[in-house]
Design a protein that fits this description.
Layout: H1 12-31, H2 33-40, H3 47-52, H4 61-85, H5 93-121, H6 125-155, H7 160-185, H8 187-192, H9 194-218
Length: 219
């Protein structure tokens, strides 16, 4: 009887990333309990956006913790997507995951930096700070949902491909909701400068992720 070689994909590295995200959330919950509870209730209440937008600081401890958790969660999902669709054996999966985290971190931080520069040049710092806060808050919240769904891709016995398409559908719906919510909150301003808003969406909200996709699929 001929033996059949069995390939098993190790999830040890992914488990480390998952534990890091959980640790970041635990620290945020411990150090900023009231803010964290308001943030978690974002889906049912806009209290967090109303109260905290006036005191938004990018380098505030809670914002740094949630942004880091966001970057790790999204990078984890991108890696799982790559692993799901590639036919190659990911012998250097650690290097690939590190490259994804580095590239996504660079894009997120670069986007925020460019937005702050634009705000300073056109003297719209207050408007841009409010926009960045709203957008980043929604994205951080969605990243937690992505993180929870990614756990199923890592550990569950549910067929990965149907689950992946379900997750993609939920993410697209969530992103459309973010766009709708931000436009609704700033409709008066956007209606005056709709051309520049569309230009901004294409240049800073869509193009960077196209570049990230090209980099990952190429290398």
């Amino acid at each position: 009887m001929e033996a059949i070689e069995r390939y098993i994909t190790s999830n040890d590295l992914l488990t480390i990333i998952i534990l890091l995200v959980l640790l970041l959330l635990a620290v945020a919950k411990t150090l900023f309990s009231n803010r964290f509870e308001d943030f978690i209730s974002l889906a049912s209440s806009g209290k967090y956006l109303v109260i905290k937008s006036k005191e938004y600081k990018l380098l505030f401890g809670f914002n740094v913790l949630m942004l880091t958790a966001h970057i790790l969660s999204v990078s984890l999902f991108v890696f799982l997507t790559f692993r799901l669709f590639t036919t190659q054996t990911l012998d250097s999966s650690g290097n690939l995951l590190l490259r994804i985290i580095t590239a996504y971190s660079f894009i997120v931080l670069l986007k925020i930096t460019v937005e702050k520069i634009i705000a300073n040049v056109f003297d719209i710092d207050e408007i841009m700070d409010t926009y960045i806060f709203q957008k980043q808050t929604y994205l951080n919240f969605i990243s937690l949902i992505i993180f929870g769904l990614s756990l199923f891709l890592v550990y569950s016995n549910i067929p990965s491909l149907p689950l992946f398409y379900l997750i993609i559908g939920l993410i697209l719906i969530a992103l459309l909701y973010i766009l709708y919510a931000i436009v609704k909150k700033n409709l008066r301003l956007i209606s005056r400068f709709w051309f520049y808003f569309i230009l901004y969406l294409c240049a800073l909200e869509i193009a960077p992720y196209v570049v990230l996709y090209k980099l990952i699929t190429k290398y």
